[in-house]
Write a structure and sequence with these properties.
This protein is mainly beta. 9% of the residues lie in helices and 35% in strands. The strands form 6 sheets. Strands 1, 4, 5, 6, 7, 8 and 9 form a 7-stranded mixed beta sheet that branches. The protein starts with 19 loop residues before the first strand and ends with a helix.
Amino acid sequence: MKVTHALCQASRAMYYLNDWSGTCQVPASDVERCESHRELSANTFYKGFTVLVSPQFINETYDNRLKEDCPADVCIPVTVHLCSELKSKISLFEQCTEVSDLQSAVYNSALQHCQNVVKEVRYMIYHNGTVGITKVYAYVWLTNMTLNTRLSQKFSITFHWAKDTETFHRSGNPGYIVGKPVMSGKKVTQIFGTEGEIDKEAIEIDENPEKWLSIAGAKNDGRCDLEGNEGNSLRYSVTFGENRRSSCMIFVSPSNFTSPSACAALHKAVIQLLSGNMVANVTSAKEFNFYIATFGDAKVEDTGDWTQVILESVPSFLTSSSRSDDWTLTCKGIVTSIHIDIMFANVGSLAVPQAKILGSVFRFGPPHDIMFTCSSLHCAHETDEQHFEVVSSVSFVDVTKPAIVEFAEPPVYEVKLPHDFFYPFFSNSPLLRPSNALVLVSLFFFPSVQSRLH
């Protein structure tokens, strides 16, 4: 299957039930390359190859050849979808439209760029296990690129069961796998209300890994996504073992500084952005109902396999506003940063260690004064915007203790003789006279000694 350009790798073998993703840099140095090189055109990635239902159908007729008369129960057609720009607030299927064909890359002389260049391709293959493949979908994103530049193309292939239920992907078995999202949720209590029934606690977790532990991200223009206060804002998943720092800009106008309540609303929006709306209505650190799975395959009903996140301090929502004589508006006490520390250790055998999360701490940064400098006395009527930076970061701390090599103690040999081992050498006489065997042994050795003396 064609997935990359010759500068990286011309093709890659896709293995059944093995998900894969990768990137490649492709150039468009001139008009000829724009229109003639196959790696820039979308039809390269869904034409010219055959997808068989099962390997048992590989024979001389259909092997490595595209036949129009290939039966539908043998060859699976690739269903192509053209997708618009990726958006975090809507699903993949809502931003993609099924099409019969896609245009090839072409040079636009008026705009002087290469149009309809492949930016990303996602293959989604549905299967029934050992029965074989049932459907193949190709989701394609196109873009325009200027000549003499390079484009980073993205490719991925994922396998899904043909049944209706979605597969729940965990982050390890049992230890966390580097690069997998950190599982998180909140503790809930199931109250039965029936006499004799015991209330049970469990962890409520979203089936979508993108809704797990995450930090705020930035839009293409660097702005923070403050519109998604319902948990749909642009965020980056916290993946195990990968430290990350993200920042974005919040733009403010004079209307954000008119009163203490306006400053408080601004502060609340910033806190919701930093925490993902997890500290809403939290007045003390003990009330912070947020848990992280210690292992990548932790079960929601086993609350002992989840560790509560420590909230170092609850940010105060008491803010104030002021205006100075030098035409400066100020909101005081605004928290603009958060840092997440996640402690983990490798446990188990030295040969196959398993990564286990031991604890996590949320630390909000110190409050700052946010200022808006007016350009005139009529500041309240200005429409100009100014901005300040909001920073989120996460660090993984390895607290594994050095392994102690211990050797087993040498075995102790306990030699036990039978109770009658010396019986031939002693008689049963009460006078303890030497036995006949002992006399014979003495006579045997005595002549030999005498012969040596002579």
